[in-house]
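Continuing the series of single-chain predictions for the mutant panel. This is the parent chain; the variants come on the following pages.
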Amino acid sequence: MKTLTDTYQLSNGVKMPKIGFGTWQVPSGDVAYQSVALALKNGYRHIDTAAAYQNEASVGQAILDSGIPREEIFVTSKLQSHIKTYEGALEAFENTMKEMKIGYLDLYIIHAPWPWSEMGKDCSEGNVLAYKALEKIYKDKKVRAIGVSNFNPKEIDNIIEHCEIVPHVNQIGYFIGNNQKETDDYCKGKNILVEAYSPLAIGYLLKSDDILNMAKKYDVTPAQICIRYCIQKGTAPLPKSTHESRIIENSQVDFEIKQVDMDYLDQIKGDPRKW
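Parent structure:
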């Protein structure tokens, strides 16, 4: 399980485990609690949640009950995408801390550059105000790193131009067929770590003939090919499952995809997710 304990170093020196456990669409209560508890039991030390997931309290409780020292677990949460004011962002962060009860966050990020109900809307001014609040939280040592999610290069440029701290992370939908090369290259150039959410394209890639064949070649599962691909691209994948067998499977990626096969996977194009 070496890959599970390997880390990336963010631009401020903070270390983040290469594989995180995602909790999007994991219902609050027993399901979220048990999923996170199982992930931690099986070696995960990077847990990703968000206010919008409405499961922060369950995730926080599972972390507290795990018996694992708090400093050994990297925890991320997110500012809801519709909050685009300085005071609103500060208040939202405090609400997250009250929900989670874990003392501090390792990473706090703006969930999206626009409200989910108005995807694509120009919220340049609001993003700057919200990010300035994150900078204050960071300077006050309530979080160890800050960043953004679903931001494109232009939207990150806006933050860099008007704020002091270059985002440490940009969390984006990233998987075989949709590796967002332009944004990925931009982030690497700015020393912004890319986190890969939906590394299995919410399950659609598990039925892909290309990936099924590649999995057979390496004697691994399709999910393991998808997760390993993200790691070899220098991103931090955030697979999620509520089943222990799959939670374990998603962490067992200590193999190497040959460059010729990475090139083949790179040329696959298309986003099978249905929005």
